[in-house]
Amino acid sequence: MRNRIARIYPLYFLLTCLTILATSLSPDLGLMPEWHTFSNPERGVLTFLNLSFLRGFFSSFKFSGVSQGWSLTVEESFYLIAPFLLVGLKYRKYLIWAYAPAFILAGLMLVKIFAPLHLFGLFGSNDFMFNYTFFGRSTEFIIGIALGLLVKTQLANNYSVNNVKWTLAGICWVVASTLALVFLDSPLDFDNGNLNPIGIAVNNVALPIGIAMLFYGLIFEHSFVRKILESPFMDVMGKSSYAFYLVHLGVFNSLIIKYVSDNIAVKFVLLNILAYLLYKFVEHPLHKRVAWRRRDM
Predict the structure, then answer these.
(1) CA 280, CA 297: separation in Å to the nearest integer?
(2) From CA 203, how far away is CA 210, in angstroms rounded?
């Protein structure tokens, strides 16, 4: 977990500070319109919520700062809880089937407690909980744990295959799940996200199953897709993917639209180049420095 935080936090911290600075100096970029309506103490609280990942629990603040960073709240919640889940599985394997229902029930209880208080949307609704918090999306992570345990067992048994059935099945499942989401055309709400229960189920359960199948195939099957993903170019793209995730919306995207072009292809190329540069000269060096300091401690 320490290594993971050492990788994701430094760049997130810098880009969050840059976003807040750009918001204060250039309101015309339209990054956080609500920022200019807040008092200084309120801005301080919002800054703290962003830098601590806590903003993801508030529907009113989840898109503030580096807007897509709300999902890091989900991810970090899992990393905090994962060690306890793995300890439980060490003694009782069947507990894996109880984890997701338990987290969903806990999420529903948190909504019951906090929603009536109207604390800037803190667990503001069941829809918000299912779309934007670890509790509602825990099934995705439990499926990932199950995949990891299965792969560990298969590797220990020297498992190998001579076909690509899992890769193909995973691709087809992911495509089918995506088409189902398009077909359902669920109404969206800014505060709460997907409002269609079937759409939520497809997104949180069906789609992750397909992704797990695809990952299983990529690990054990020698497919054309695996060869592409193993290429040096895709290796570079993978290393810079976190930086791309942080910059594909926000300050740099707005600057490109304002001063260069709003063409999606142009933005995609420029943002990928920027992401690689950020990985090479910011993220990776900071990761190594922070990780080594922790080891020395």
Answers:
(1) 26
(2) 11
